Amino acid sequence: MIAAGRRALVLAPHTDDGEFGCGGTIARLVEAGAEVHYHAFSSASRSLPDGFPADTLVHEARAATTALGIDPERVSIHDFDVRTFPTVRQEILEILVAANAEIAPDMVLMPSLGDIHQDHETIAGEGMRAFKRTTLLGYEIPWNCFAFRRDAYVALEPRHLDAKVTALGHYRSQQHRNYANEEYIRNLARTHGIESGRELAEVFEVYRWIL
């Protein structure tokens, strides 16, 4: 799965979702020589705390993805309004279909189909449609997933987890959120590592696996 010459596409409903759900895996993919692309569908400008400019999360996302090793030219940030994605499903699908034609990814990392956030659910559902002939893995956002199958584990080295922590640290506008906590991020990776007999890991649901 993780090898030079592979192309991976990360789908993040909002900036920081991809980094939280699979930041360590992104770092491992980049290190292995894979070509990683990243699409975020909202910069959540209307959800920023008071005092932050509207484009804050755009800059934070670009810094975070750079920390993970993603080429800035492979980062796309759209600006759909938060919590409105179900009303623009077709527009989102068209973006995903175009990305499939342009990138032709071998693997897509996206939110879980069981994620209850309406924006996450939309990206997962339309991602399934656009990339149905591609390996599809759903990443875990624990506070949004009432049920999550741990189908696949990606083992991480400490440096991959460090890169994830560094990337999420660039989201200074989100540090008030209770999950924006280094101890929690590291403990979650340790928990998945214990489950899989490794030191550290991230976990995914498998929707389609194509070798």
Summarize the structure in words.
This protein has 211 residues and is an alpha/beta fold. It has one domain: LmbE-like (Rossmann fold, 3-Layer(aba) Sandwich), CATH 3.40.50. Helices cover 39% and strands 18% of the residues. The protein has six helices and seven strands. The chain has a seven-stranded mixed sheet, with helices on both faces. α1 links the parallel β1 and β2. α2 packs antiparallel against α5 and α3 crosses α4. The protein is globular and about 40 Å long. The N and C termini lie close together (8 Å).
What is the number of E strands? Answer: 7
CATH superfamily: LmbE-like
- Alpha plus pi helix count: 6
- Please state the CA-atom Rg, rounded to the nearest Å: 16 Å
Strand pairing plus helix content: what structural class?
alpha/beta
What's the pLDDT, averaged over the residues? 96
**Gross CATH architecture:** 3-Layer(aba) Sandwich
Approximate strand percentage: 15-25%
